[in-house]
Specification:
The relative contact order is 0.24. The protein is mainly beta. Strands 1, 2, 3, 4, 5, 6, 7, 8 and 9 form a 9-stranded mixed β-sheet that branches. The longest helix is centred in the first third of the chain and has 11 residues.
Length: 178
């Protein structure tokens, strides 16, 4: 297969009121025929989002053009917003930067950069996937709601660790349950 796919670097800049540094990121392989909605779904999965019932919005490099699934906005989409389900990634140029924001309340903001060279998905991934997929990544990903453990309310102190470190685990693996 020829080098026809885009490589898109996505870095998480901020969210839930915090700026992140160093920025965690992922690099995605995406066909020019994939939609912005498909790219958004891939980004959300790769960044560990599990509550997907939130609006998202791409802002292209001109700072004016917005892309989002229009049906999600219930007629309240920002003026001039293009439908993300119908708008293809083919409108992006090599080296172009654009922003992606997930959840307009917590504002998980990402800087996205289109790679300077097209890629061959067979070379990079070993297959030709139906949707954009990450093929490289780095950094620790924050929880979507800044929870540190199951049941965290955001104000409680860290729970006390078991005295032996793994004493709360069943003896399935060596060192567990001791």
């Amino acid at each position: 297969m020829a080098r026809t796919w885009l490589s898109v670097r996505v870095e998480l800049v901020s969210g839930h009121g915090a700026d992140l540094w160093p920025r965690p990121g992922r690099i995605f392989a995406a066909a020019r025929t994939h939609s912005f909605t498909q790219l958004a779904s891939a980004v959300d999965r790769a960044f560990g989002r599990w509550d997907l019932a939130h609006l998202h919005l791409f802002t292209l490099s001109d700072g004016v053009t917005k892309v989002s699934p229009l049906e999600w906005w219930g007629g309240e989409a920002p003026d001039g917003t293009l439908d993300g389900s119908a708008t293809k990634l083919s409108r992006l140029q090599p080296g172009e930067q654009f922003a992606y924001v997930f959840d307009m309340g917590d504002d998980w903001a990402h800087i996205c950069t289109v790679g300077g060279q097209r890629i061959d998905p067979l070379e990079e991934l070993g297959e030709v996937p139906d949707n954009p997929v990450p093929y490289w990544g780095w950094g620790s990903l924050p929880d979507q709601y800044a929870r540190r453990w199951d049941g965290d309310d955001g104000e409680a102190r860290l729970p006390k660790r078991p005295a032996r470190g793994t004493g709360d685990l069943p003896p399935i693996l060596p060192g567990w349950g001791e």
